Amino acid sequence: MTVKLVVLYTRPDDAAAFDEHYTNVHAPLVAKLPGLQRFETGTFTLALDGGELPYHRIAELYFADGAAMNAAFGSPEGAATATDYGAIAPPGSRMFVEDVSG
Questions:
Q1: How far apart (Å, rounded) are the C-alpha atoms in residues 50 and 92?
Q2: What gap in Å lies between CA 95 and CA 92, rounded to an integer?
Q3: Nearest-CA neighbor of 37 among 83, 7, 1, 9?
Q4: pLDDT per residue over 74-99, tens digit each?
């Protein structure tokens, strides 16, 4: 079953600097993950329900299954990506794994 890693980044102190690093450093690391089927990222602009907007950016990484995702993050490319995430993710950022159906 396809799995998706969903990463939610909270609002950084300097959004422009965060986005520059994300686009020029982090996203190219993500793109090198072995077994990655699809990668999407974007920034949040509005909460339609009128509530607070605690997250700045989302990333969605698709893999064939959990084993493929685990292998990707067990690789040298995965280690580099995880290290960079640790360096740039604002406090409160979260990662979730979703089983994709349909």
A1: 21
A2: 10
A3: 1
A4: 999 999 999 999 999 999 999 999 99
Between 1.10.1060.10, 3.30.70.100, 3.40.50.720, 3.40.50.300, what CATH number should domain 3-99 receive?
Answer: 3.30.70.100
> Domain locations in the chain?
3-99
Cβ(102)–Cβ(1) under 8 Å? Answer: no
State both tokens at 42: 């974007």
Instruction: Give the pTM.
Output: 0.94
| Spatial CA neighbour of 11 closest among 90, 96, 94, 95 | 90
CA gap 92, 56 in Å, rounded? 11
